[in-house]
Amino acid sequence: MEIDLTPAALLALRKILDAAELENRKMAAATGLTSSQALVLRQIGGHETITPSAVASALGFGQATITNIVDRLVAAQLVTRTRGLADKRQVMLQVTELGREKLKASPFPLQMRFSQGYAGLASWEQAMILAALERLDGLLTPEAPAPARQSGA
């Protein structure tokens, strides 16, 4: 007789989602930023200057997402955009003093706590967790709709 582990799995998933939601509320209360904005601000703040594409690559975000987040950070005067000295087509991002103050006031993001804990695991544990997370992503991500059929011919 097999034991149904579905309720335990759903409970664990709910705990993860609740932790993420609590983190988002803490971040918003402390800084007025979303967790994504805080991650981008922290990534930019870790460099003297950095390109938006380097931020997108480091965080695994799309270029359009980074552009949207950076627009909001610039509007809040937390980040500046400047043209590259060598190549005027290149845009460079830099954290302002106000942005640095926000970083100091922000709680340690959940993603960073996970990264530190994950890095401390044995490689076989990392592989098991990664496989489980990828499988979970596959279970939760809806299938792409079938392409529309061409009429005629």
Automatic annotation (TrEMBL):
Residues 2-138 form the HTH marR-type domain. One of its GO terms (molecular function) is DNA-binding transcription factor activity. PROSITE patterns: HTH_MARR_2 (PS50995). One of its GO terms (biological process) is response to stress. InterPro entries: HTH_MarR-typ (IPR000835), MarR/SlyA-like (IPR039422), WH-like_DNA-bd_sf (IPR036388), WH_DNA-bd_sf (IPR036390). PANTHER family: MARR FAMILY REGULATORY PROTEIN, TRANSCRIPTIONAL REGULATOR, MARR FAMILY. This is MarR family transcriptional regulator. It comes from Novosphingobium pentaromativorans. The lineage of its organism: Bacteria, Pseudomonadati, Pseudomonadota, Alphaproteobacteria, Sphingomonadales.
